[in-house]
Design brief:
Blueprint (H helix, E strand, L loop, with lengths): L6 H7 L4 H8 L14 H13 L6 H21 L3 H9 L13 E5 L5 H12 L4 E2 L8 E2 L3 E5 L6 H10 L10 H14 L4 E5 L10 H13 L5 E6 H7 L4 H7 L3 E4 L7 H14 L11 H8 L3 H17 L7 H8 L5 H12 L29 H15 L3 H14 L3 H8 L8 H21 L1
């Protein structure tokens, strides 16, 4: 069978266009209405649920999805070469091609960056109703291109293998793990499964034995001989880096690092606009003018922006206001309800992504090679200067404040700006540098992913 006529391959080739990918994965929930008729917390819950459904694919998302799609195509070209070899392997499991040197694809990033959403988007991209007719009296086979498993829902490896081996038609009684793996491998081959993804892998195990259990679980799934993507937060990857070299080779040598969007990108502004559309007319933020400030409050993490908007809505209802503008968002950022996110954001803005000063759940476990650093007055520098200005001005006497007002009227310069000019300090890395550097690193990592 020629590759151009290969149904296992052709189902994916038509998806390679950028607009096709983005249109298939995009998710636009309807706008919310009549929230003021609900109790405040009930309305807030509806807002959070709706905003979490938004999936507006970024350029980073597209590059990752395209790379995974290309891997699926290459896998199918190697595995499904003609009807005869497929039919023989259907009846003789020993003839199913093996991938003994396979490596797992490690998808990682900060919590809330969008890993789970990308795993779900991959399912929407690959979904199709494709049948293969191999003749010889066989019924056409419905292909199942993509398996996915969430370890938050089901952390047990034996139960996971049973689901993969038999789907919904689960047999009764105990079955050996080796038999489950053989059956799952055969089912994946029969159904033309070209990708498998495991999400929330940090929930596989906790405690002192987590390192070993997670490693054994992931390697067991890797040996089902289907290209395997596992998604996890940074902290689990730091644990895996302590494993033996041969295990690290299998699990950590093909990473995809999802990085926050930069403040000045269309992708970031588009997500803000989509949040505004879904939330409704009460959300009065500007995707262009307020993009930088919103970014400095969230580090470009989508989950944090959703939570920040929800806290802003709660404050609006508490204060009996009609809208949430950027000043109320600022209050939300400083509130107790957002304090955990605020602590994380300030740490992330203060250190490079792979800095040893960051805790494991915030520290990137892979070398991003941040070689392209430019100076930019943004992020934490703006926050620090704003805080310092407020403290200094609050400490002035009445006469000093009057003198300061006269100075501002004549020169237009703030006291903080004058003091900064008189007392230059050593430049240190700031949020703008880190985010621009991560943009370059994202491009480099994604180019590496597609080439591989």
């Amino acid at each position: 069978m020629r590759v151009t006529q290969n149904p296992w391959v052709n189902r994916f080739v038509q998806l390679l266009d950028e607009e096709v990918i983005k249109n298939k994965v995009r998710c636009k929930p309807p706008a919310l209405h009549n929230l003021d008729s609900l109790a405040p917390l009930a309305a807030e819950d509806r807002i959070r649920t709706a905003l979490k459904k938004i999936y507006e694919p970024t350029q980073q998302d597209y590059i990752i999805l395209r790379g995974l799609l290309e891997r699926a195509i290459g896998f199918c070209i190697d595995r499904y070469q003609d009807d005869r070899s497929f039919t023989e392997a259907m009846y003789d499991k020993t003839k199913i091609p093996r991938r003994l040197d396979a490596r797992a694809i490690c998808l990682t990033g900060l919590g809330g960056i969008g890993k789970s959403e990308l795993i779900e988007a991959l399912g929407r991209l690959l979904a199709s109703e494709t049948y293969v007719d191999i003749g010889s009296g066989h019924k056409p086979i419905l292909l199942d291109p993509y398996w996915t498993h969430n370890f938050r829902r089901q952390p047990s490896l034996p139960k996971t293998l049973r689901e993969l081996a038999y789907g919904t038609d689960l047999p009764r009684g105990r079955i050996d793990a080796s038999d489950l793996k053989d059956q799952a491998r055969w089912r994946a081959f029969r159904d033309g499964t070209a990708l498998m993804a495991a999400d929330e892998c940090q929930f596989i195990s906790f405690g002192a034995s987590a390192n070993t259990k997670v490693t054994n679980t992931l390697i067991s799934l890797l040996y089902l001989d289907v290209p395997f993507v596992y998604a996890s937060n940074y902290n689990l990857i730091h644990l895996l880096k302590k494993r033996w070299q041969h295990e690290r080779d299998r699990l950590l040598c093909d990473p995809i690092v999802m990085l926050p969007e930069s403040a000045d990108t269309d992708d970031w502004r588009n997500f803000i606009d989509e949040c505004k559309r879904v939330a409704g007319s009460w959300l009065k933020i500007d995707a262009v003018k307020d993009a930088g400030q919103l970014h400095s409050y969230t580090f470009g993490v989508r989950r944090m922006l959703v939570d920040l908007i929800c806290v802003g809505y709660r404050l609006m209802r508490q204060r009996k206001l009609k809208a949430v503008d950027i000043s109320l968002i600022k209050d939300a950022y400083g509130s107790a309800m957002y304090s955990e996110h605020r602590r994380d954001v300030e740490q992330l803005l203060s250190h490079p992504p792979a800095s040893d000063s960051l805790p494991d759940d915030l520290r990137c476990p892979f070398d991003l090679q941040l070689d392209h650093v430019k100076k930019d007055q943004g992020g934490i520098r703006r926050q620090e200067e704003g805080n310092s200005r407020g403290i200094l001005e609050a400490a002035l006497t009445t006469s000093e404040k009057e003198e300061l007002d006269e100075m501002r009227a004549s020169s237009g310069a703030t006291m903080s700006e004058e003091r900064l000019e008189k007392r230059p300090r050593r430049e240190r890395a700031n949020a703008g540098e880190f985010m621009e550097s991560m943009g370059h690193a994202r491009s480099a990592l994604n180019r590496k992913t597609i080439r591989s």
